[in-house]
Design brief:
single chain, alpha+beta, six-stranded antiparallel beta sheet, three-stranded antiparallel beta sheet, 8 helices, 30% helix, elongated, disordered N terminus, Cilia- and flagella-associated protein 299, cytoplasm, DUF4464, nucleus
Length: 248
């Protein structure tokens, strides 16, 4: 039965799904000999329902109806279940060919985020985005953004639609306003912030406890990569990717 459940999917009931009616179920317990000697199908069904005839324990009509209803509800749930739409799905941020045979990415940060979104959402990847640029007040700000945390806590489609700009906030992993000298740091469900360290600013992944070093002169750490993007959208963008592995 375990194999049947795996093939049919969650919510599959081998009795409720196989038989359209309770009478069909009872008929499956009746053999040719029963019909021959009893000469009455209804009588044979009654004997099966009473447990006098049949193959093994027979479920009652009420239980059959309840299982039938539950099976139908599970089937409808499977039909109605839709995969979560990715924020970047269908958004046109890809690279465009030039006449000289070269390619240019019109929105390299958005392309990088789109490429990583599915892996970040399913937990295979954690990504930190460093952005330095001027805010709406003309002040230079910089910060480290936990991409996965942003995906879970806000609707990111406006970024991919280019209706909003992804910018650091005081609520992100790390934030600094170069004009006001305001500085903040905050842990997220994915990362712990390690500040005031001789190595500089570090982020510890809460899943596998690996540390990401954002110092550009140092290695980013185990299972981590550092990618600086060439873009006209921001003064500076660096993407840190960490392949997460749960500790054994």
């Amino acid at each position: 039965m375990d194999d049947d459940l795996e093939v049919k999917g969650p919510g599959y009931d081998p009795i409720a799904d196989e038989f359209a009616t309770y009478e069909d179920y009872l008929d499956s317990q009746i053999n040719g000999t029963d019909v021959y000697y009893l000469e009455d199908v209804e009588l044979a069904r009654q004997l099966v329902e009473l447990g006098i005839r049949g193959n093994g324990e027979v479920i009652r009509r009420e239980e059959f109806e309840a299982r039938k209803e539950a099976s139908e509800a599970a089937r409808q749930a499977r039909l109605n279940k839709k995969p979560k739409k990715l924020a970047g799905q269908g958004k046109h941020v890809e690279e465009f060919p030039l006449l000289q045979g070269k390619h240019v990415e019109e929105f390299p940060l958005l392309q990088a985020l789109k490429d990583r979104e599915e892996a970040v959402r399913n937990g295979k990847l954690t990504t930190i985005v460093f952005i330095r640029d001027k805010n709406s007040k003309g002040q230079e700000v910089s910060g480290y953004i936990d991409y996965g945390h942003r995906l879970k806590t806000e609707n990111c489609e406006p970024y991919f639609d280019r209706k909003k700009r992804l910018m650091p906030r005081p609520s992100d992993l790390s934030f600094y306003n170069w004009e006001t000298q305001m500085s903040t740091s905050n842990p997220t469900p994915n990362f712990q912030v390690i500040a005031d360290n001789e190595a500089g600013l570090l982020f510890k992944n809460k899943r596998d406890r690996k540390v990401i070093n954002v110092d550009p002169t140092a290695k980013p750490g185990d299972n981590s990569t550092r990618t600086e993007l060439e873009t006209a959208e921001y003064a500076q963008v660096v993407v840190y990717d960490h392949v997460t592995r749960r500790r054994s």
